[in-house]
């Protein structure tokens, strides 16, 4: 009850605990725009041969393509699967423009460039992201042997990065093998281990995922629910040797995309395990994320980055990842008030990010992504920001909060 009241307060909204809720704030209509299928198909048709995948755009909105051995390569092939899902939810109509392609074929075709990565790749912990389209494929065809084999192979690569002394999978490789680095983003890759455990019956994979989540919960989350980006451990003793940032403003700051991964990652681990520690952690991360958005409603690339010099760049992907994570969290809230509070917050994030970053003239759906500010990679579209924008839209449609 206390958490619910706090959430209602922090949303500073019209939400009350009375039994007549105020009318819901509508999601932005852009979530259903025919520009979505139009742009995704155009990008698919422009994939280089041999295939490379879009990761971010230039500051004028032109996709930049990368070798499949990149952490983001799974997002584009997973996107047509989301549009295929949307057809099952909405049908194809002239207004939604979904009828321009067979999205399942597009997704399958776009996925093939990822298959070779199962033999090994340079993406550290990011095996879960690489496996996304194959997990989507199994939801459609549970007997697809190509997808099964790929999932098991990616899971094996991730599991091999587990260190039982630390109780986590290693996120990044380092030249000093004793220096064991784990980033908050790694929470997003644990689902792969659960999917692979279900396919193979190997429960060790689940144990590894749980241990990783427990260790992250203990060391990455601050008292106030914010997160460190990177924790360094001594691989031999398991002791924490450093808490720092890589892509954020400072070692003690909160990088907003990392905070969004924490909401989503812990909510998803609660979905997979039913362990309420994960639910509590997702709520704490969500509270920090929502509590600290400035009055203008623009989620900054780092919560502690200075406002001056203005404008402090946003990260539109943090908003769409957090919105999707909040919709997942809402599902597991048993009271109407808490469910509604997270749902309204997700819709609010989507409204605000649409107002800031929906960009019809760019190849990406959204602008105002910050890929890596310390590397001066900002004011871009991002393939993951767009993916979660579409995914959040599907979730709202499925829950009848957005009318096709
Ligand atoms: C199985 O999945 C792979 C990878 O997603 C895809 O390329 C292939 O077309 C699928 N095969 C069938 C028969 O559906
Ligand atoms: C289960 O998975 C772990 C991690 O990949 C592996 O070490 C172990 O050999 C597997 N067990 C079986 C019975 O295949
Ligand atoms: C390697 O990493 C460990 C743990 O972070 C650290 O204690 C040690 O000093 C490092 N060694 C070198 C040569 O930097
Ligand atoms: C959206 O932006 C408005 C300001 O325009 C702000 O009042 C509101 O709190 C923001 N909502 C969220 C969820 O960030
Ligand atoms: C959003 O993007 C536009 C165009 O790239 C840029 O001019 C503006 O400063 C950005 N705003 C924020 C808050 O990042």
UniProtKB/TrEMBL annotation:
Keywords of the record: Hydrolase, Signal
The Gene Ontology biological process terms listed for this entry are: polysaccharide catabolic process
Q: Does the keyword Hydrolase apply?
A: yes
Q: Does the keyword field hold Hydrolase? A: yes
Gene3D superfamilies listed in its UniProt record: 1.50.10.10
GO MF annotations in UniProt: chondroitin hydrolase activity
Under the heading PANTHER family, the entry gives: HYDROLASE, PUTATIVE (AFU_ORTHOLOGUE AFUA_7G05090)-RELATED
Protein name, per record: Glycoside hydrolase family 88 protein
Q: Which organism is it from?
A: Asterophora parasitica
Q: What is the lineage of its organism?
A: Eukaryota, Fungi, Dikarya, Basidiomycota, Agaricomycotina
């Amino acid at each position: 009850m206390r958490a619910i009241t706090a959430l209602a307060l922090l949303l500073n909204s019209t939400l009350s605990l009375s039994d007549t809720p105020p009318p819901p704030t509508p999601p932005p209509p852009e979530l259903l725009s025919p520009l979505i299928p139009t742009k995704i198909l155009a990008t698919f048709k422009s994939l280089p041969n041999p295939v490379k995948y879009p990761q971010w755009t230039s500051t004028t909105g032109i996709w930049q393509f990368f070798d499949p051995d990149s952490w983001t390569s799974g997002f584009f092939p997973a996107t047509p699967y989301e549009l295929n899902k949307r057809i099952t939810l909405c049908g194809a109509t002239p207004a939604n423009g979904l009828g321009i392609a067979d999205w399942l074929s597009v997704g399958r075709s776009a996925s093939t460039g990822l298959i070779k990565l199962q033999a090994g790749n340079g993406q550290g912990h990011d095996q879960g992201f690489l496996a996304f389209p194959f997990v989507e494929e199994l939801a459609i065809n549970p007997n697809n042997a190509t997808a099964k084999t790929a999932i098991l192979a990616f899971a094996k690569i991730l599991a091999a990065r587990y260190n039982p002394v630390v109780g986590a999978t290693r996120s990044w490789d380092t030249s000093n093998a004793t220096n064991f680095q784990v980033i908050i983003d790694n929470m997003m890759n644990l689902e792969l281990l659960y999917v692979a455990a279900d396919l193979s019956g190997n429960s060790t994979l689940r144990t590894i995922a749980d241990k990783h989540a427990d260790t992250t919960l203990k060391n990455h989350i601050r008292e106030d629910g914010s997160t460190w980006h990177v924790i360094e451990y001594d691989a031999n003793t398991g002791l924490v040797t450093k808490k720092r940032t890589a892509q954020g403003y400072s070692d003690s700051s909160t990088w907003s995309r990392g905070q969004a991964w924490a909401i989503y990652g812990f909510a998803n681990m609660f979905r997979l395990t039913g362990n309420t520690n994960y639910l509590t952690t997702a709520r704490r991360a969500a509270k920090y994320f929502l509590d600290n958005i400035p009055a203008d409603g623009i989620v900054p690339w780092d919560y502690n980055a200075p406002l001056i010099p203005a404008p402090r760049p946003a990260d539109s992907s943090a908003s769409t990842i957090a919105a999707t994570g909040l919709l997942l969290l809402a599902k597991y809230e048993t009271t109407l008030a808490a469910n509604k509070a997270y749902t309204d917050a997700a819709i609010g994030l989507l409204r605000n990010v649409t107002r800031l970053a929906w960009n019809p003239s760019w190849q990406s759906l959204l602008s105002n992504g910050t890929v890596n500010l310390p590397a001066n990679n900002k004011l871009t579209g991002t393939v993951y920001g767009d993916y979660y924008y579409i995914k959040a839209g599907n979730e709202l449609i499925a829950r009848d909060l957005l009318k096709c």
